[in-house]
Amino acid sequence: MTGLTDTLKLTVHFAERERTDGRYLADALLDLYADRGVATSIMLRGISSFGPRNIVRSDESLSLSEDLPVVVSAVDAPGVIDAVVDEVVALTGRGLITLERARAVSGALPDLDHTVKLTVYLGRQQRAGRLAGYQAACEIFRRHGFASATTLLGVDGTVSGQRRRARFFSRNGDVPTMVAAIGTPAQAVACRDELVETLDDPLLTLERAQLCKRDGRVLERPDQTTGAMPAFQKLTVVTSEDSRYRGIAIHRALVRRLRDSRAVSGATVLRGLWGFHGDHVPHGDRMFRLGRSVPVTTIVVDTPEAISRCFAIVDELTDGHGLVLCETVPAVLAVDHENRRGDLHL
């Protein structure tokens, strides 16, 4: 993956049963990415969400009829992503589409003076000695002092332009997995070569970020000076699934409070596989454990004004727990059939 320099990340949030021309939207998107040879794409299943219609989708009911949220991201050179944007919009009947810039961490990095998000894309069953590849990545990030690292397990996607989907009774070794870590530019530079050597030249991307809270302590509020051009922001809250606010899992309390307050137009919750935040050791699912300590990320994409309102709720519910990150999203399009808000022009 060392051939890439600048990249774009195209992400679509939608309900898993959303269809287009008689097919599931997720299949249509991933077939498109495979046909166009997109370097990396990954489909993540969420556990809870709500959108502009204020309908909550959650795994709490344990019902097979539940229509859970899905997030599909594609990463490649700007020319490749630009070529599929219009088709992605045409396929999406209802959903939220975002377009973000990222830098492939291959050559020399520019001087940076802000928090960064370093993302590693690798195979689900990829190994690094005795450890799973994602566990090795988290150990490297922790050793270099990163604020957090979260592994998200893909269920479908493309790797080097080839479709890779999870199947029953299969090792699913090539199905994409991503590890997103939050740290400083110096930490990113320091661990880059070790990640490349340990994980056999994975795709690494770097994005600008703002670390707002760590272990319940406010470091700074989301930046409201996003420049003259209208922009959206993405607020990401990282907690453990067994972390509680007044007896309720923090991520579930967040979804309920944000929905009831109408402070933002939506939120999506993704369950991680392995990771850490703050000074905690890397953790995940283990046998013979009554509770689940896997990392959970709650994602909100909205205007800076809405994110500012949302942060007050997030701050209250993460008192003493978790990590809160804010990023600028330069292009957002909300689609509800003929009703559209925003655009995907950078």
TrEMBL record:
A Pfam family annotated for this UniProt entry: DUF190
Source species, domain of life: Bacteria
Transmembrane residue ranges: none
Family designation: Belongs to the UPF0166 family.
PANTHER family per the UniProt record, alphabetical: UPF0166 PROTEIN TM_0021 (PTHR35983)
Name this polypeptide is given: DUF190 domain-containing protein
